[in-house]
Specification:
Radius of gyration: 24 Å
Distance between the termini: 65 Å
Number of domains: 2
Strand order of the largest sheet: 1-2-3-4
Order of helices and strands: HHHHHHHEEEHEH
Oligomer: single chain
Helix content: 55-70%
Strand content: 5-15%
């Protein structure tokens, strides 16, 4: 039975991934988000980096999602407690309203960070992402409607609307899990296998020009060597952001600096990585010893 349900879920996500009709609204939303940040100038770039989690070295969206989901869960539980009580439970009702409102407020941060992360996606992941956002927006609308009904004293209808919104959150969460675990959106794409303790000669130091990346292989693993200001550094050829090849330059465009060096802060700010690249600045010491 569980296997059958899993197949149904896979069929739904596969159906979404092949809906090219989602490309047009996705493009329009992407342009609107990009334009909003561009209009803010330098502040927009800083805000984008903040919402994406680049400065923290960790995606911000998964942490903020816990606020609305946890608050709405508590609100539903308080509603169930109120409904199961034979006598009026004013404290449970008040707690349900408070946690419901807190979840609606927290959803704002989750929406903003989610939009920034979604804008970095393409193709199938982008299509699933826009449906994920639409489903969660529907859930937020249901909870806001429940909050409005409570203010009018229509508690029974409000509880029903909250339960419907809670079920909708599960649907949005399923799509979000598909993006994270199947499409690896926002995850670390670098190869974090244990690094070798020793050094392996792969290239003559004189054969590496300044600020020109050179890809080599060590035991079948791609490594990019870069010389900057006379300092030789090595980093994994697999970008931690989307798994692209770092040798093409797009992943490391801030003076070829390496974490632990003086330019590490500038490098992090100029890229959109939330996970640090796999790099080693000890290559220069090895080069001096083997010269």
């Amino acid at each position: 039975m569980a296997q059958r349900r899993a197949r149904i879920g896979d069929r739904i996500t596969e159906w979404i991934e092949h809906r090219r009709s989602l490309d047009a609204p996705g493009h329009a939303l992407g342009v609107a988000v990009s334009l909003a940040f561009r209009l803010m100038g330098r502040r927009g770039k800083d805000l984008r980096s903040l919402l994406h989690g680049t400065r923290y070295g960790h995606p911000l969206h998964p942490m903020l999602v816990a606020v609305p989901v946890g608050s709405w869960t508590a609100s539903v539980l308080f509603d169930l407690l109120d409904g199961a009580s034979e006598q009026p439970a004013p404290r449970a009702r008040a707690a349900a309203v408070m946690t419901l409102g807190l979840g609606c407020l927290g959803a704002g941060g989750a929406v903003l960070t989610g939009l920034v992360d979604w804008q970095e996606t393409h193709g199938k992941a982008r299509r699933v992402g826009i449906v994920h956002a639409a489903v969660n927006a529907m859930a937020l609308g249901l909870f806001l409607g429940s909050l409005g009904l409570r203010r009018r004293g229509r508690r029974r209808a409000a509880r029903s609307l909250s339960l419907l919104g809670f079920a909708t959150v599960f649907g949005g969460g399923y799509l979000g899990g598909h993006l994270a675990y199947r499409r690896r959106v926002g995850t670390d794409h670098a190869d974090r296998s244990p690094a070798p303790m020793g050094f392996t000669p792969v290239l003559s130091s004189a054969a590496l020009p300044e600020n020109t990346p050179r890809r080599v292989e060590v035991d079948g693993v791609g490594v990019v060597l870069v010389r900057h200001d006379g300092r030789l550094s090595a980093l994994s050829d697999r970008c931690s952001h989307f798994g692209g090849p770092c040798r093409r330059g797009g992943c490391s465009t801030a003076g070829w600096s390496v974490p632990g060096t003086a330019r590490a802060t500038a490098w992090t700010a100029a890229t959109r990585w939330t996970a640090p690249p796999l790099a080693d600045s000890r290559a220069s010491r090895c080069a001096r010893r083997t010269a």
